[in-house]
Structure formats: C-alpha cells, structure tokens
Amino acid sequence: MSRRRKIYEGKAKILYEGPEPGTLVQFFKDDATAFNAKKHEIIDGKGVLNNRISEYVFENLNSIGVPTHFIKRINMREQLIKEVEIIPIEVVVRNIAAGSLSSRLGVEEGNVLPRSIIEFYYKNDELNDPIVSEEHITAFGWASPPEIDDMMALAIRVNDFLSGLFLGVGIQLVDFKIEFGRLYENDAMRVVLADEISPDSCRLWDINTKEKMDKDRFRQDLGGLLDNYREVARRLGIMNENEPTRGKGPVLVKSD
C-alpha cells in the first residue's frame, strides 16, 4: 500500500491527496494542543473519537441541506472530503460566556448571552489568530461581503442544529468554532462548511452538573479528556462503551 502525498499538516489533522480529483483524505491525529500549540500532548485515541463525532455531525448537517466538504468516513481515523479553498477566517458562535469572551469583556463564565454572538478571527498562528471585524475581512480581501453573509447564515443554521442535538442528550452548547471553504464545481463556486466539529472545536457542558466535556479539560489541566470525549460520543449514540478508541491503522486508503 503506497502512502499518498501529504498536502497539509495542522495541529490536529493531516490532509492527504484523495483517490479522485477534487478529493482529499483528512486524517485525525491524537495531538492535543492549546495556547497556539505552546501546550502540546499526545492523547492516544482522541483522533478516533473526533473523527467519529465529526462524521456524525457533518452527516446530519448534510442531511438538512447545510453544504459541507464531508463525503464519508473511511476508517477509524480518516474521512474522505471534497477539496476546498479554505477561507482564512475562523467563525466563532457564542451562546454562553466562556473563554476569551469572559476574559476580554469581564463577563462571568456561565452567563447566558442575551443572544448568540458571532465573532471572526483571522487564521494566523504567528499573530495568535486575532479577532477581526467584517471591515478587516473585506479590506484585506480574505472574503467578500456575499461570502461573509453566507458564512454567517450557515453559522446560525449550524448553531440551531447543534444546540438542539446536544440539548437532546443533556449537553449544553456553550460555543464553537467553524471554518469554511470555497468549493469550485464546474464554473460555479459556493461557500461550504469545512474542517471539523468535535469536542476539540466546541465547548460542551453537562446540562445538570456543568462538567466540562471538551478541550478545556486539557487547557485547564482538569484531566479526563478522553473519558469526556468518549461520553459525548456515547450520548450521541455513536460508540458503545466497549468500542476501542485506540489503534493506528489502516492509515490511508489504497491507490486505484
């Protein structure tokens, strides 16, 4: 089995060329990072859980008409996705005060916001992903006004869906980060949801105990990250309690 050409490697995922033109293979790593990778550990099995949870979310979003890059899960650690041109903006949707919102504005963590807030961050590790406005985005050509409108409309739809999905299994969706890409098909281009949606990119609290079930367990040295990711998957009905989350292979799909 020949390894495919690596296209890109980020903190938590690797992209390889796909089996067909216009496709990529997205590999989920076990790396846990925080504070722009200043804190870094390998947590065996995290990639498997994120792959399964993200697959479940993206399949459901596809089914309700939210355009995404997701095609199918290949194995324990990989997904087949459509190749897109990533828009260098992280879109953060906040429902409850936490994280940088609390520290920046002095809002007590846990306060329910009067309405959901959408924020934009420029994807640039060297600058620590600074918060930016719509004016910054258009002035520097990172996205056009219609693309911003599309991203905001899709972000609201994703928030509505995820809030209901998690509420149904006793989990509060505090906030989440998503990314978008430009998908080129024939002569047309459209904005689609890309990257992943998992406990790495969402803040998730148990609705009764307020126990954190996301990457804040790693950021804040709370421990139990894998157990809580596994509990999220169990509540969503994705994995049973005895299903393994470790194991490295198969790593890549075969070449045709």
Structure, described:
By secondary structure, this protein is of the alpha+beta class. It is 27% helix and 33% strand. It folds into 2 domains: 89 residues, Phosphorylase Kinase, domain 1; 122 residues, D-amino Acid Aminotransferase, Chain A, domain 1, CATH 3.30.470.20. Strands 8, 9, 10, 11, 12 and 13 form a 6-stranded antiparallel sheet that branches. A 5-stranded antiparallel sheet has the order 1-2-3-7-6, with helices on one face. A two-stranded antiparallel sheet has the order 4-5.
Secondary-structure element series: EEEEEHEEEHEEHHEEEHH
CATH architecture of the largest domain: 2-Layer Sandwich
Mean pLDDT: 93
CATH homologous superfamily heading of the largest domain: ATP-grasp fold, B domain
Number of domains: 2
- Total beta-strand segments: 13
Major sheet summary line: 6 strands, antiparallel
**What is the CATH domain class of the largest domain?**
Alpha Beta
Based on CA atoms alone, the radius of gyration comes out at: 18 Å
Q: What's the helical proportion of residues? A: 25-40%
Q: What's the overall geometry? A: globular
Strand content: 25-35%
Q: What is the CA-CA span between the terminal residues?
A: 10 Å
Structural classification: alpha+beta
CATH names the topology of the largest domain as D-amino Acid Aminotransferase, Chain A, domain 1
Helical segment tally?
A: 6
Segments where pLDDT lies below 50 for 5+ residues? 247-256
